[in-house]
Design goal:
single chain; about 190 residues; mainly alpha; two-stranded antiparallel sheet; 2 strands; rod-shaped
């Protein structure tokens, strides 16, 4: 009996040992693979029913939001107020732009005044040239007749030339003012 019992035991142990060494690690490996594929990789919720469309909202302007006028999950329609921005930075910018516009308007008015002044100066200078040209003709006739001096003739001629140069300077001032007016009336880019 001891022979029969002793010989069957080692055979079953010999057979059990490879089964345990192969099957148990394979089962453990399969269990780990199952846990890896199903656990923690995907977020699952059982109550994720949304009754309406969810949209993303963005503003055309940047700024600090001071008030949110809707609650979470509240229905909204087109044109409903959703939130308010802090208006202070925009009001400051409007005031700055208005003061800049006032400054430009004042500059334009000043340039218009300068333009009118140059036109008046030009008119007076042209009248002065006419008068001085007549005097120069008289001095020329008097000199031809021997009644006028050479000095008075040269002085009259010099005065006419000076008056013509003055008209040219006034014309340059007029063109400068017109150019400045053209720059002021063009829109800023």
């Amino acid at each position: 009996m001891s022979d029969g019992n002793g010989s069957t035991r080692p055979k079953s142990r010999k057979l059990l040992r490879p089964i345990l060494l192969l099957v148990v690690p394979v089962i453990a490996l399969l269990g780990l693979i199952y846990l890896y594929t199903t656990g923690g990789r995907y977020v699952v919720t059982e109550n994720a029913y949304v009754k309406s469309d969810v949209i993303t909202i963005s503003a055309d302007v940047s700024g600090r939001v001071t008030d949110v006028a809707v609650e979470e999950n509240q229905r909204v329609s087109k044109g409903d107020l959703l939130f308010r921005f802090d208006a202070a930075p925009y009001e400051i910018e409007v005031q700055r732009a208005e003061s800049e516009m006032d400054l430009v308007a004042t500059k334009i008015e000043s340039l218009h005044t300068d333009y009118r002044e140059t036109l008046i100066k030009r008119k007076h200078a042209l009248e002065q040239i006419d008068f001085l040209t007549r005097q120069l003709k008289r001095q020329r006739q008097l000199r031809k007749q021997g009644l006028g001096s050479e000095e008075r003739y040269d002085e009259a001629r010099h005065t006419v030339e000076t008056a013509k140069q003055q008209v040219q300077l006034i014309q340059q001032d007029t063109e400068r003012v017109l150019a400045a007016l053209g720059r002021c009336s063009q829109p800023a880019h």
